[in-house]
Write a structure and sequence with these properties.
The protein has 422 residues and is α/β, with parallel strands linked by helices. The chain is built from 13 helices and 12 strands. It has one domain: Aminopeptidase (3-Layer(aba) Sandwich), CATH 3.40.630.10. Strands 1-2-4-3-5-10-6-8 form an 8-stranded mixed beta sheet, sandwiched between helices. Strands 7-9 form a two-stranded parallel sheet.
């Protein structure tokens, strides 16, 4: 009997040891995968959509993306979903706020700090320095303003999931030092139109054809030329409920471009730069873009170009440049919506500042051609978003200081706005 008790105790002890060992191994496995053990119950986009973002032939529609972000809002202390208004066709315009739980508890204080830096008439240099040392910076990630540029909207839920669950030092740094404002689709109406259109034409000869309708009811593709007149509901929501409330230091504007050149563009922009953009901002854009290019190249991303193709001339596309922040444009090469394309090397063509078949200082690692997929687009967007967010996290004080300095200069400037530079 005594022997059975001993063996029974040993068996119980062995079972406890095995259970603890299994839990430890599982925890280590999650840590190695970069997933927080506290976040393992948060569903991934694949679990909710039934496919991973970027899967060939699959596009998550806006309503499902919003429903997924609602799940994250309920499951994670690092994300808060807000409905900011109604779009032209009465869809919800939503924004996810992602940061550390501590920052999310202090959003009003952070907004007040941003407002004080934005208006130096009410903020002494000493008070500004105190804010700069203690307050997180704000980054707006605006996805798929052009609805046929499907990749950024598909990437958005994956980015949100990673920020909510990853234990990687980079992600923890982002959460601690920044507040991320994620707009999953700037044009929800058009996003739904394009997903429905794609589901009709995929697998047919029409998959590469432009849709026979405007994907913004009134202005179509020109909805990103509305940043000085504010004629559209989506523009007004963004200005009134995001820019004027949060005053982001960087607005990441995620687009797609043609398929036969670079795989991804990041700033700095080519000349001309609109003359009313402060030189401090021009320099900060160059600094950030160079950092992002270096990060992506180190990660093995090929075909990334900067200081080519796109300029910063018109105010119609760049609201942040006139409000102490910067517009950080990304343009990723397109496929046929969610269907792949094959690019022959000899068809690669560059324009304005680089040769896509030749390495140069602003294009260090050419892409050799081949198959290009929605998965590639989603991955390049994800990598670029994380790179610029980490750049901000590592350089938070410099950005906040520049933000205040530009506002201070603007308040002292004399003379008319130079609308027609000579």
């Amino acid at each position: 009997m005594k022997q059975n008790k001993i063996f029974g105790s040993l068996r119980v002890g062995s079972l406890r040891f095995a259970l603890l060992t299994s839990l430890l191994i599982a925890s280590l496995g999650l840590a190695r995968a970069g997933v927080s053990t506290d976040s393992k119950d948060i569903p991934s986009p694949k679990q909710v959509f039934g496919f991973a973002p970027g899967t060939e032939g699959k596009l998550a529609i806006y309503d499902d993306i919003v429903a997924y972000l609602e799940k994250l809002d309920r499951a994670s202390p690092k994300l808060m979903l807000q409905r900011l208004g109604k779009t032209t066709e009465n869809n919800d315009f939503v924004m996810a706020i992602i940061s550390s739980p501590e920052n999310l508890k202090n959003l009003s204080k952070i907004q007040k700090s941003q407002a004080l830096l934005a208006d130096p008439r009410h903020t002494s240099a000493a008070r500004a320095e105190q804010i700069i040392r203690t307050s997180p910076a704000v980054v707006l990630v605006n996805c798929s303003i052009h609805s046929t540029e499907v990749g950024p909207a598909q990437m958005a839920p994956q980015l949100a999931y990673e920020l909510c669950t990853s234990d990687e030092p980079r992600v923890q740094r982002i959460l601690q030092h920044t507040v991320v404002l994620l707009v999953p689709a700037h044009n929800p109406d058009g996003q739904k139109m394009i997903v429905n259109w794609y589901n009709k034409v995929k697998g047919t000869k029409y998959v590469s054809s432009p849709p026979p309708f405007l994907y913004q009811k009134y202005v179509g593709h020109d909805n990103n030329r509305d940043w000085f007149m504010f004629t559209q509901a989506e523009t007004r929501i963004t200005v009134e409920k995001i820019h004027n409330v949060w005053r982001p230091q960087i607005t990441v504007d995620m687009h797609q471009m043609g398929r036969n050149g670079a795989r991804l563009f990041v700033p700095p922009y080519i000349d001309p730069i609109e003359p009313n953009v402060d030189p401090i901002l021009v320099s900060q854009i160059a600094r950030a873009g160079t950092d992002v290019l270096a990060t992506l190249t180190a990660e093995g991303k090929t075909g990334v170009v900067m200081n080519a193709i796109f300029d910063a001339w018109t105010p119609a596309r760049a609201y942040p440049h006139y409000h102490h922040g910067v517009r950080f444009l990304t343009e990723t090469a397109s496929a046929n919506l969610a269907s792949p394309v094959n690019i022959k090397p000899e068809t690669l063509r560059g324009r304005f500042g680089y040769n896509p078949r030749k390495a140069s200082w602003n294009f260090p690692a050419p892409w050799k051609g081949g198959k290009w997929t929605l998965a590639d687009i989603v991955e390049y967007n994800r990598a670029a978003a994380l790179a610029i967010l980490d750049h901000m996290a590592r350089n938070r004080e410099a950005w906040l200081r520049s933000y205040y300095a530009v506002a201070r200069k603007a308040g002292r400037r004399c003379g008319p706005f130079d609308a027609y530079p000579r």
